[in-house]
Amino acid sequence: MNRAGFGIRVAAVLIDAAIFLPVLFFGIVGARWALESGAIVRTPHREDDVWMSVWVGNTVMLAYSAMEIFWGGTFGKLILRLRITNADGSPAPRRVLAGRWALKHSPRLCGLLDAITGVIVLRRLAAKAGLAIFLSKPLNFITLRTVAELLVLALGAGFFLTLGVSRQALHDRLTSTAVSRKSIPLAKRGFEPVIAVQDRE
Q1: 111 falls in which pLDDT band (50, 70, 90)?
Q2: Which among 157, 181, 185, 180 has a CA at the least distance from the CA of 170?
Q3: What's the CA gap between 176 and 94, in Å, rounded?
């Protein structure tokens, strides 16, 4: 079994960043345009730029990273011929890939959930349910942000476990997965060389 180590996995992250950051930039620009044109309701309880960055950033990143569930890797991994597999190197089923993805991106899931609670539509629905306080003060889950920050620290430090013998990050160990390098098959020769034998008299 040929597991990917720290260096090549960092290289995959850098490739993903080169692809993802322009997409994120245009996503934020598009969201800002929608905000200024009135397509998105302004939220007076939060700074629009901060809220938009959290909302758009988490949404775009989660959508991009979801490739790991369906393809076994993001573009960075696929370009470097890496695949997310079971710990023994066998193909990982989609439910395992989904669990690994949810754990790996749990800080962003917390951030997105925190951003969703500030949407004015949700607060209006809460008010209709008899919780009118939400109209004057949005749901603000400090706990979610704290959990997200702790998860970032744990998963960030856990990535350095790839320097070890098992080459598994913390989220790999918890989900019994690994990132494996796909071997490149040797090309077969198109023909067998013919050796000429001269008769000696």
Answers
A1: confident
A2: 157
A3: 13
